[in-house]
Amino acid sequence: MAMLTSVGADTLGVFLLGGVGLVAMLVALRRRYRRGPLRHSADDSASEAKLRIAAMAFETHLGMFITDARGTILEVNRTFSRITGYSAVEVRGRNPRMWSSGKHDARFYQRLWATLRQTGRWQGEIWNRRKNGELYLQWLTISAVKDEQEAVTHYVATLTDMTEHRRAEQAAHWLAFYDPLTGLPNRRLLLDRLEMTLKGVGEPAQHGALMFIDLDHFKTVNDTRGHQQGDALLREVAQRLEPLVGRGDTLARLGGDEFMVLLTRLGGDALRAARVAERVAEKLLAELAREHAIDDQRFQLSGSIGIALFSDQGGSVDEAMQQADMAMYQAKAAGRNALRFFDPEMQAEVLERITLETELRQALASDELQLFYQPQFDAAGGVQGVEALLRWQHAERGWVSPGVFIPLAEETRLMLPIGEWVLRTACRQLAAWQGSASTRDWQVAVNVSILQFHEPGFVELVAAVLAETGAPADKLKLEVTESLLMRDPEDTRLKMLRLREWGIRFALDDFGTGYSSLAYLQRLPLDQLKIDQSFVRGVDGDATNAAIVEAIITLSATLALEVLAEGVETRAECDWLESHGCCAYQGFLLGRPMPAAALPT
Ligand code: C2E
Ligand code: MG
Ligand code: MG
């Protein structure tokens, strides 16, 4: 029996048709169906049951029509009528030419027929016309049905309407590559274009520039005026910046208040390219700075722009992005409303910082951190206590100065776990010293960072560590700085009062170097002022330092606070201090920071 040739999976409903006879029977059967339900008769054979299944399958979600060998339409299904607008009666006996769109030339149809003759099948996109005159794109599959002598007896065609499909495809494409809020290209499209540019299609080499634009303080607009106004402002910004970016260049919105500009083909001379980029960036900044008005509300904006130059003969997308980003941060650091070019030295610094950060993270885990203790002496030369000072012995770098890694730990919030470790280690030591008469009275001073102190749960942490280590609270002294006190005065006061209830003491470190407000000295439960070492330095010969130190000593007497001089390096400084009423000292003259075991007992 002749088989329907090359039926694709999409010709669902046709696969049941075993051959010419079946197609013909199907056509006949459908006509009978239309006249009324088929009555069961004795000759209702298995093949007829098969046919009825085929007839059902003919009613698929795909439009279908069947023609004879000359192309005369014999039968169509309901989906066909829905798509084309033609009922079966209107098309039966006619040729599919009736709905041709006129959009394809004669060669198109010649090729279609040639393929159909050679392979028995054609499929592709084709424009046709609906009954209402509307042009639409359809996906059409035509299969030839042949008899035993390989002669074509019928054609079976299936079709789908591509209009919706196309529309959805376009919408998906738009969403994937454009920012819905502003209609600007999004990050992905910008990166695609950057990647294309970096591939360097032409000779000679061309420079380009990538700009990172971040609006200054945009968050404040969102917070104070609401997100709707924020969104409207972003749309306005997009509209105003777009004309400043030439054709062939790209202004994209990355999200939030971040925009990016890609300038291409700036010529072979790097310096000239930089000047062009700078001019564009200046225009963008000036436009941003012009007043914006949304619903009668006025906004004053500014932006920070980072620029990375690149050559289209190399370089990577990531590198250019990173450089523009870094330059933008430099523009922000320069006080905002500024533009900055990427600078390789800055990059080296940033990389070094990142490495150090990673290593510091590991240091805590791998026991590279240690606590040293620097003794504090009274006038009689006895040790009254120690200050715990953090040390980092790096496997390769050796000792890393706290002046380097502590600010880094603060910025990265690593200071939280590190500070907790310091507190626990110092308290353990404090508890251990309770066991010996010579060390029992020592106070242990622990430096507390701003971040740590203002973290919720700090008070509870101290309580837990004291309980866990068994250290006596009244021997623990927390060293705080003026900036810590000023950060959130109310939070500070409440926390200090709670800690003070258990007997914990407070020293004000580096006194005189911060924005001292004498008012809080009285309001806070402080015990000691530590005169900063910069004033102690040469106090015996330097009139200014002498005046400052004398003032601090008098102040502490008035407020009934203890006073300790830090960084005492010479006997002359020590004698001067003693004769001016300061009787507690800490410094290299008397003892350097050292491991607990090395302390004089
Ligand atoms: P600080 O709290 O003012 O500590 C005193 C600093 O002066 C220490 O520096 C100490 O080694 C140094 N010093 C002591 N005597 C002398 C002297 O006679 N001459 C000179 N030139 N320096 C002297 P260090 O250990 O480098 O620590 C620097 C800063 O790092 C500390 O200043 C403190 O603010 C911070 N720090 C150290 N350990 C910790 C810690 O565990 N937690 C926190 N949050 N900060 C810490
Ligand atoms: Mg200190
Ligand atoms: Mg200090």
Global structural class: alpha/beta
Radius of gyration of CA atoms, rounded to a whole number: 42 Å
* Low confidence ranges: 1-19
How many domain units? 3
CATH-assigned fold name of the largest domain: TIM Barrel
How would you summarize the topology of this molecule?
Elements: H1 20-35, H2 46-58, E1 63-68, E2 73-76, H3 78-84, H4 88-91, H5 106-119, E3 121-129, E4 135-146, E5 152-161, H6 163-177, H7 187-198, E6 207-215, H8 218-225, H9 227-241, E7 250-255, E8 258-263, H10 270-289, E9 292-294, E10 297-299, E11 303-311, H11 317-333, E12 339-341, H12 344-365, E13 369-378, E14 383-394, E15 398-400, H13 402-411, H14 415-433, E16 443-447, H15 450-454, H16 458-469, E17 476-480, H17 482-487, H18 489-501, E18 505-511, H19 518-523, E19 528-531, H20 533-536, H21 543-558, E20 562-565, H22 571-579, E21 584-585
Helix pairs in contact: 1-2, 8-9, 14-16
The structure holds ligand C2E and magnesium ion (2 copies).
Question: Can you tell me about this structure?
Answer:
- The protein is α/β, with parallel strands linked by helices.
- The chain has 3 domains: 2-167, 2-Layer Sandwich (Beta-Lactamase), CATH 3.30.450.20; 178-342, Alpha-Beta Plaits; 352-598, EAL domain (TIM Barrel).
- Helices cover 44% and strands 22% of the residues.
- It contains 22 helices and 21 strands.
- A hairpin with a 2-residue loop joins strand 7 and strand 8.
- Mean pLDDT is 88; it is low at 1-19.
- The chain binds ligand C2E and magnesium ion (2 copies).
- One magnesium ion binds next to strand 18.
- Residues 509-510, 530, 566 line the site of one magnesium ion (MG).
